[in-house]
Design a protein that fits this description.
This protein has 119 residues and is mostly helical. Helices cover 34% and strands 7% of the residues. The protein has a two-stranded parallel ribbon with strand order 1-2. Strand 1, helix 2 and strand 2 form a beta-alpha-beta unit. Helix 2 crosses helix 3. The longest helix is centred in the last third of the chain and has 21 residues. It is globular and about 40 Å long.
């Protein structure tokens, strides 16, 4: 287990039912990234109680990794920004019942679960 996760057992959390859904890619009618809707999807999964959100992992989304589409980095950047915003909002709200809940991110769809890190 890596240092960032010393206080959290991901495997145990997953066995208890932690959910990390794959987020769809939000495109507009011109097949360009729709940032407003992409952010809304990320907030939806967070607000619904997801323990993390997998971004850019659907098999139909692997084309976004192709440089000619120029989508992969913008999507990951947008997700990272939104994760930070959600974490800050949760932490700042003393009335929030799950203010200490962590949202887990994974930058790649391939790799060992121990490379996940908390926000």
């Amino acid at each position: 287990m890596n240092h960032a996760m010393a206080d959290f057992d991901v495997r145990a959390a997953l066995q208890r039912g932690l959910v990390i859904p794959a987020c769809p890619l939000a495109l507009n009618s011109a097949r360009q990234l729709d940032e407003r809707r992409q952010r809304a999807l990320l907030r939806y999964y967070h607000d619904a109680g997801a323990g993390g959100i997998a971004v850019g992992v659907h098999t139909t989304q692997f084309a976004i990794r192709d440089a000619k589409h120029a989508l992969f980095e913008p999507v990951l950047t947008l997700a990272a920004e939104e994760f930070k915003r959600m974490h800050a909002a949760s932490s700042a709200s003393a009335a929030c019942a799950d203010s200490r809940r962590r949202l887990w991110q994974r930058r790649s769809c391939c790799g060992h679960w121990a490379t996940m890190r908390p926000f």
